[in-house]
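Section 3.1 - Work completed
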Amino acid sequence: MKRLAKIIILVCILCLPVWAEAQDTLRLAHEEFVSIVKNYHPLAYRYRLQNRIAQREVQQARGQFDPLVDGAHGAKTLDGLDYYRETQLELNIPTWYGIEVTGKYNTINGQRLNNNETEGGLYQFGVTIPLAQNLLYDKRRAMLDQAKFARQMTEAEQELLTNELLLRADNAYWAWVKAYEYYQLQSRTVEVNRERLQLIRKTFEYGETAAIDTTEALSQLQGFELQMEDAYLQWVKATQELSLYLWTENQQPYNLPVNVVPTQDLRMSPAYTQFALLINEVNTRPLQQHAAMQFIFQEQNILKSELKLNRQQLLPQLNFTYHLLNKESQRSKYFPLFEDNYQYGLKLGIPIFLRQERARYRITQTRLLQNKLEAGVKQQELNTRIKVYASEVQNYSTQIELAGKNISNFRRLLQAEEARFQNGESSLFLINTRENKLLEAEQKLLELRLKFLVSYNQLKWLNENF
């Protein structure tokens, strides 16, 4: 019961209750519906979570530069002989340019030490410098750069996915509105024909019309009743499809009751007054700023980072290490650096044929070329979509205006035919013909309005991706 009460409260808040045709009728506004989808739909929430993951991956990549404290202690005793007792502490600080700074303290004592061991406490302060490979760029820097690019890439992708979800939801809302208006249109037509049938029956009783007229009026009414039942079925189906986008705050599905109706009709959308401004805005925006292009560009940056790293792998591995040494409780002389109390090393390594390195470099070059080709195709695709949607919106706007004038003409013809019928100059057949034409024109106008709004939504949500 508590859960049901929460759902009822949520519907009352989000669906804008309005006392309209009946006391149990609730109305759902377009803005509120889009807000519900944006805030509560599981996919929209999932996309936001994906952005959080990308941010954490950047943090993880930064961890490659965290200082590392290491410690160890060990001893060996055999047959009453202390071979060694050793304690070692070390601090390793990696830097951005591939240089590692280290500080060590080591103390060792025993009766069987190796010749290269220094008995007692020893302090060491050193640095390791790459002289060829990893000097200009290394794996740590590449991982951090690529994590940053991947985060921007993820943000662009999630923006595209979120707006695609909102586009489908937006279209579903207006399809729901159209289904409701179509049902209302059929219901009004049925009511008019019921009144007409009653009138024909009365005139038949007075001997003013033939019996066949009542049959024709009944047949016309039954045909419209069939259409009304079909329209009601479409309305129910559209309601169920709209419910796919309605979720509660804790991501639980919510089935929209049939007594919930739209707040506005297809004519009340601001699209009719804003489409010209929207077309101008989309046409003046650089396509490079679109999220789809940004996704490709960030992928391109990742490939450039990988190519830069692969280029470093073609160089020989040449590392220089130098440590200043100082025995515990003893003053030492540090300068000149290579005169006393020091330790250094030089390490060189390079594969003879470099086949793996050269292959990775060429593969990355090829992928980068593929990415640039994809960018050109996507830019042309976006440009074409903008032109197509803009043309559709403008054309449907013109068709709607013509369809409205056509309906006015059909309505005047119907009214004139009814007046002639009352004067005995026409027939019920002609009235039914005029009425059918008017109904077809009104249905056509509803379809045109929905097509206009769908095309407008395509352009609107494409614009939201910039």
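Second construct:
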Amino acid sequence: MKFFRLVWAGLWRKKVRTIFTLLSIVIAFVLFGTLQGIDTAFKQLVDQGRLNVLVTQNPAGLPLPLADLSQIEAVHGVTGVTYRSLFIGDYQSLRNIVIVLPIDTAHYIALNRNIFSVSPTQLAAFQHDRTGALITESLAQRLHWKVGDHVPVHALNAQKKDGGSDWTFDIVGTFDLPNNPSREQSLLLMNYDYFDTARAADTGTVLSYQVNIADASQAAAISNTIDNLFANSAHRTLTQTEKASAQGQLAQIGDLDFFVEAIVGAAFATLLLLTGSTLMQAFRERIHEFAVMKTLGFTDGGIATLVVSEAILLSVGAAVIGLLLAHALLPAVGALAQGQIPGLHLPWIVFGAGIAGGVLLALASVLPAAWRARRLSIIDALAVH
């Protein structure tokens, strides 16, 4: 801290160059923080998957017959089975996307009571109202819906028998998803019977079955038993634990870790070259200045320390700014995605890794300049024109 003013003055010796270098580092760390935040959100979503819950679906994502329900329920070790379908809709505008889940009202919420938080009164109203709907608190706030509203949702992939695509619902309650990164999702739960009776195609089918089992250690054996039941049918199944199913869905996007590491690695490699060349240029411009400082009593190590301190202050300061911007940006990205990328935030471990990365970037960039500053000869430096 004794020489902070000296370090600060040296850093801003060339204001325009410092500003552009600072902006380059800030942008790199905004990219780092944002990508790492998104990657962390997806991993947390996978980690929420339960090992004692199986998901049975078609390997190609095609619908499965509802008639399979009784056979799955009869498998030894199964304690409960429910089902759901899905379609995507919007309210008044494509900017207001709504994910609609037609569910088995009798069992779906009961078998997921550790996930859904809904009042018994509203749940009973939902189960007894054919057009009733339960919505997430976040969806109610975003679209300004409230209990008692009669709302239309325009389906993007679920046409009705009457040729239309508008599904109407009576909002009978709201629910929350405590301790779940997907709690901000724009979800609407509807009565499966209403959906199946009114839709134009795939009547009598479901998108997937949820199978609760008594012993998680028997998940593989029970999964094989279920899949063997339909191995020779026209509707083959793939049964996995809920966690493995989430991992499989994430894998369809691609190797997210590889993409994040490749993009961040390329950005930091470019930044390393840019910052290194900038710091070396700054050193060459100040050779006479360093020589004078040595004649005034500054040691070789002291000069090298000043050079390193300037680089660390620049790099770490820019890293902090970039990470704070990423922290502020991630919720905005989640809002734009309308809850489709749940749990977006910047973990503290990523923030800490970013700061450490800033220090490493500074050291890697400035070491050549610091080494030359340490070995600088006063006579040779003053002789340079």
